């Protein structure tokens, strides 16, 4: 339940009360320090009454509050967050698994894949350091341009509009179609204490290698 305090004139209050299925509960409350009356708007979501809850912020305060709210409610509303939550040490991975939290993860990759192991070995050999996320993204970008140039030629920006998936080397891949944003974004969650991808896999026959 979220409480929002605001001064609402009587005529506006009357019009709000006429709205059918108004999502907030309105009540008059007197402030002992102020003779003027004001009203509280209470946003109440009944248990198991919505399909899911999405928290689009990467900030730890919103992530923590969302986890706490779902935990306190004690119902089965799924929570969808962002992969940046994984970098906040104050957020418990066990709690995320217990609450069945899903995360949108554009840069998720499998560190057990042969492609990642090959890249890791090469970077360690040449630069004496282990690869981080920026190494992976940079490598993925270079190989992506190679693939689309090979498939579509120098006007690849038009070719990728065909809606086919360009399979990634380490990351998941891309699919643009009529959008300027990649439509192929993994959804991950903790299962048996391991991060797992839970969205649909690439569709064979609709992709470029």
What does this structure look like?
With 209 residues, this protein is of the alpha/beta class. Helices cover 32% and strands 23% of the residues. Strands 4-5-6-9-10 form a five-stranded mixed β-sheet. A hairpin with a 5-residue loop joins β7 (165-167) and β8 (173-174). The longest helix is centred in the last third of the chain and has 20 residues, at 133-152. The relative contact order is 0.10.
Count, helices: 6
The topology string of helices and strands comes to EHEEEHEHEHHHEEEEE
Query: Would you tell me the overall average pLDDT?
Result: 80
Q: What percentage of amino acids are in beta strands? A: 15-25%
Distance between the termini: 49 Å
Q: How many strand units?
A: 11
- Cα-atom radius of gyration: 24 Å
Describe the largest sheet.
5 strands, mixed
Strand order across the largest sheet: 4-5-6-9-10
Shape: extended
The helicity comes to 25-40%
The structural class is alpha/beta
Low-confidence stretches: 1-6
Can you give me a brief rundown of this structure?
The protein is an alpha/beta fold.
Tag the structure with descriptive keywords.
32% helix; three-stranded antiparallel sheet; extended; 209 residues
């Amino acid at each position: 339940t979220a409480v929002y305090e605001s001064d609402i004139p009587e005529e506006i209050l009357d019009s709000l009360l006429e709205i059918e299925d108004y999502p907030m509960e309105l009540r008059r409350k007197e402030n002992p320090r102020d003779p003027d009356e004001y009203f509280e708007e209470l946003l109440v979501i009944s248990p198991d009454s919505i399909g899911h809850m999405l928290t689009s912020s990467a900030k730890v305060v919103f992530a923590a509050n969302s986890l706490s709210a779902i935990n306190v409610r004690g119902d089965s509303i799924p929570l969808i967050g962002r992969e940046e939550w994984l970098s906040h040490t104050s957020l418990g991975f066990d709690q995320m698994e217990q609450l069945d939290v899903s995360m949108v993860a554009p840069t998720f990759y499998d560190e057990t894949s042969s492609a990642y192991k090959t890249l890791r070995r090469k970077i360690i050999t040449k630069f004496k350091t282990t690869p981080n996320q920026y190494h992976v993204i940079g490598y993925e970008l270079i190989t992506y341009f190679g693939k689309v140039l090979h498939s579509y030629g120098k006007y690849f920006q038009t070719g990728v509009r065909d809606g086919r998936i360009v399979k990634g080397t380490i990351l998941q891949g891309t699919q643009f179609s009529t959008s300027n944003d990649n439509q192929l974004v993994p959804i991950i969650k903790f299962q048996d204490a391991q991060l797992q991808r839970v969205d649909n896999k690439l569709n064979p026959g609709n992709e470029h290698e």
